[in-house]
């Protein structure tokens, strides 16, 4: 199911720090299964078709894209960063620049296992910028956005550098934490 993301009640009460969120679908079958295979079963080949689905939804691409970073230990264990692979595949489809802008400096619990409140406290002081930011329009790529806690932390860093427009590109969006 492909749909536009409407503004939810939570976003009306407490607006996110990003300007727009573009996604392919809710976190539901069949995309939830593809994301699980991509992320947890090392089905790297899914990066390109998933990115192509997402690229079809992006109306005005940001000139610069980045991705949600993994802690180096999780990256080593998994062998790759799924958000980075998606961003690099999107680059070809959207014809824009892609660069790592963030470092995940603290190891945290997996976000998908936490409540909204736990997600917020789990991310305090976790990220830092790798370099000064000069772009005014940046997109952050992630596979799944649930509460938005992770991308909001990254948006805080970008806003502190004067970034005016922040887009979030993700494959799926869900309002409830998903359990395996």
What would a concise description of this structure say?
The protein has helices spanning 9-13, 31-40, 47-55, 72-78, 82-94, 116-122, 149-160; strands spanning 20-26, 64-67, 97-98, 102-104, 127-129, 137-145, 165-173. It has 180 residues and is α/β, with parallel strands linked by helices.
Beta strand count = 7
Radius of gyration: 15 Å
What's the order of the H and E elements? Answer: HEHHEHHEEHEEHE
Give the strand content: 15-25%
The helix-and-strand class reads alpha/beta
* Mean pLDDT value: 87
The largest beta-sheet arranges its strands as 1-7-6-2-3
Helix residue percentage: 25-40%
Largest sheet: 5 strands, parallel
Number of helices: 7
Poorly predicted runs of 5 or more residues? 1-5
Q: Specify the overall morphology.
A: globular
Distance between the termini: 21 Å
